[in-house]
Structure to design on (241 residues):
């Protein structure tokens, strides 16, 4: 009888515990409390039922400044829009389980890692002003806007992002940028990298292109008849068509 009671106690405790999402970062929990998603007590957890229907989180008014971790964000399963800018302590962000996410703005943090590896619905990603050395976008096939300027990227694979309309990747360490798969691309800014060549022959819809401060030696724009805005200062061009 005692064993049966212990079993039921264990099951009840497990079910009760599983109804909560752990929020180890106090500043993240304070944000949830202040916005009415959590009780007024700092206990490192929030009722999952209070957060799994939220569609938008926008960290404003300085609430992001001291958040070091967004652990628990994975249970915001209905989230379609996440905005966290100028978070001085945030070094990593994993939103791979937020598969409903369509818009992510996480600029000017201290991110060294960003996981969007399963975000197939993502259409807008702005992660400028971080310290990212890699960015896997191969599953973000719906992406139309990408701004990853001012990071430390040495490579950027856009071969699966057929829907891209605009790309900004200035101030990185890119030596190669292949946009041959991005045939509906209209805006491309890749200044201040280490590019030695640029092939835009497949990007015939391109209307704005900026590639200044690279190491380009050749540039072929004969097929880019829709080009209206263009800059390529401070390169090593010996051939320009």
């Amino acid at each position: 009888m005692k064993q049966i009671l212990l079993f039921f106690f264990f099951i009840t405790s497990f079910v009760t515990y599983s109804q909560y999402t752990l929020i180890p970062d106090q500043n993240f929990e304070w944000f949830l409390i202040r916005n009415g998603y959590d009780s007024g007590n700092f206990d490192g957890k929030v009722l999952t039922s209070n957060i799994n229907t939220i569609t938008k989180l926008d960290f404003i008014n300085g609430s992001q400044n001291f958040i070091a971790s967004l652990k628990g964000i994975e249970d915001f399963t209905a989230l379609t829009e996440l905005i966290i800018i100028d978070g001085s302590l945030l070094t990593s962000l994993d939103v791979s389980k937020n598969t409903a996410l369509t818009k992510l703005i996480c600029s000017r943090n201290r991110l060294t890692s960003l996981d969007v590896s399963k975000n197939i619905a993502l259409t807008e990603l702005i992660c400028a002003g971080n310290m990212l050395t890699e960015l896997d976008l191969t599953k973000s096939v719906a992406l139309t806007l990408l701004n990853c300027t001012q990071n430390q990227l040495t490579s950027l694979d856009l071969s699966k992002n057929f829907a891209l309309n605009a790309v900004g990747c200035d101030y990185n360490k890119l030596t190669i940028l292949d946009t041959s798969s991005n045939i509906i691309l209209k805006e491309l800014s890749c200044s201040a990298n280490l590019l030695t060549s640029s092939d835009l022959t497949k990007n015939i819809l391109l209307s704005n292109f900026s590639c200044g401060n690279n190491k380009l030696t050749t540039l072929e724009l004969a097929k880019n008849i829709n080009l209206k805005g263009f800059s390529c200062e401070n390169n090593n061009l010996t051939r320009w068509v």
Q: What stands out?
A: The radius of gyration is 22 Å. The longest strand covers residues 56-59.
